[in-house]
Amino acid sequence: MIRLTTIVGEPFLLNAELIRTVEQRPDTFITLTTGERLIVSETMDEVMRRVIDYQRSKHLLPSFDAPRPRANPAATARTNQSASGESSRSAFSGRPHAVADATTASAVAAIATPPSENERHARCASRS
Questions:
Q1: What integer is the mean pLDDT of 41-51?
Q2: What confidence tens digit (pLDDT) does each residue in 56-73 have?
Q3: How many CB atoms lie within 10 A of CB 48?
Q4: 36 part of a folded domain
Q5: Which of 42, 49, 112, 115 would bridge with 119, disulfide CB 3.0–4.6 Å?
Q6: pTM of the model as a whole
Q7: pLDDT at 57
Q8: Mean pLDDT of 4-17
Q9: Does residue 40 sit in the same domain as residue 81?
Q10: Environment class of residue 120 by beta-carbon count within 10 Å: exposed (0-12), middle (13-18) or buried (19+)?
Q11: Residue 110 belongs to some domain of the structure
């Protein structure tokens, strides 16, 4: 429900789910899915903002104003537990997510970590 004001100044609540169209003429006309037409004192942009706020409050529309939370790396490494207490499994390997995440993390670390000076000398010596 959104709070609007009639053209004569009386406040009322409107089920935002019933709005079909909003038109801005000299006055703002709202056409409902039932075919009924309402004239309100709010602007078309204000009606639209209130409908969007209403949909966000129902979690049907994402809020682009607030930054998205980032995944906690420590939480990602833990095994996910379902309500029954069973650990969830990776769809690809059948292993618990924690094992798959640890394997992935070690592979990424191996790629991202440059070789030590001794390892470089050993590689050069093995090539010759």
A1: 96
A2: 888 766 666 655 556 565
A3: 13
A4: yes
A5: 115
A6: 0.47
A7: 87
A8: 96
A9: no
A10: exposed
A11: yes
- The angle at the Cα of 51, spanning 55 to 25, to the nearest 5 degrees, equals 160
- Total domains in the fold of the chain: 2
Report the side by side order of strands in the sheet with 19-24.
19-24, 28-32, 37-40
Q: Does any domain span residue 66?
A: no
Q: Which long-range contacts (C-beta less than 8 Å, at least 24 apart) are formed by 105-114?
A: 105/77
Q: pLDDT band for 38, please (50, 70, 90 cuts).
A: very high
What integer is the mean pLDDT of 98-106? 47
Amino acid at 53: D
Helices (H), the chain: 44-57, 73-77, 97-112, 117-127
**58 phi and psi, to 5 degrees?**
-90, 0
Q: Which two tokens stand for residue 51?
A: 């409908």
In the chain, what's the furthest Cα-to-Cα distance? Answer: 93
We report the CATH number of the domain holding residue 15 as: 2.40.50
* Residue 52 one-letter amino acid: I
Distance in angstroms (rounded) separating the CA atoms of residues 128 and 2: 78
Q: What local confidence, expressed as pLDDT, does residue 34 receive? A: 95
pLDDT at 80 (0 to 100): 47
The CA distance from 39 to 42, in Å, is: 9
